[in-house]
Amino acid sequence: MYPDIETEISYKYLQKLIKILEEPICMIGGWAVYFHVQDEFKKAQDRPYLGSRDIDLGFHFDKKLTFKEIKNSAFVKTIDILEKDLHFEAVNFRFVKEIHSETGKEIPKNINLPQHFIFPIYVDLIIDNIPKKFKEAVKLNPIDEPLLHYVFEDKKYRSTKETLHKKLLLPSVSLMVAMKLKSLPNRDKSHKRIKDICDLFALMWYGGENISKIKDDLTSLVKREDIEKALVCLEKDSLEIVSVAIGHSVEEIEELLKSLLS
Description:
alpha/beta; 12 helices; 49% helix; single chain; eight-stranded mixed sheet; 2 domains; 8 strands
C-alpha cells in the first residue's frame, strides 16, 4: 500500500527510538496494529503485514500534574531524544524528518529538492489527558486520545510485546479497534482511510481476540453511533483497494466489519 522504502525507513527509526527510550514504551497507531497481527498474518499469507509511515507513541498524564512534573515527564524526555539525538524538527504538534524517497537518506536542511523526492517521516506523541499546565510547560499543541488512558489504568485493555530487549505496551485488540473506529470518519486523506480499514479488518481477523469479546468490549469504549459512522466509510472503491492490500475479498471484509453492529 505504501512504498516499501517508506515503511522500512519508518521501522528503522522506530527501532532507534525503542533502543533509546526508557520503559514503559507505549505504541499506538499503525505500528501497534503491525505488532498485534504480524505473526498470524505472515503465517497465513507468507508475507509481512502492512507497515506504517508514521510512528505514534502514547503517554499517560494525570490532569493535576504540576509544571515541574510535566517538565520531568517521559513525554518531555522523548521530545529531547527526537530533537537532540535523532534530529527531528518540531512542526506544530508533530515531529518530522525529511527523507529522500529514492535513496532513503536524510535530506540536509540546505538542500532543496522537488516535492516528489521528499518523504516526510512523522513521529506523533499522543497523550490521554491534557494537564492544565501542559502548554505552559511543553510549548506544543498536544494530540490527545481519550481512549488511551485505558492502556495505563486497566490491564484488561493492554498487552505487551518484547522487541529489541524492551517491553512495549500496546492497546488491546479491542481498544485498537475502538480507536480505529473513532478515527476513520475523520480521515480526510484517502490513503489513511484505506489503511484504517485494512487495520480494522486485520485486527479482527488476525489479532487473536474472539469477535464476540471485541464486540462486548466495544460497548464500554464507543457508542453505537460511532460504529455506524465508521461503517459509512466502507465505500466500494476503498474496499477494492483494501481487498488487494490484505488478500481478502471485498465481501469478506464488508461482512466482518458490519458484524460489529449485529
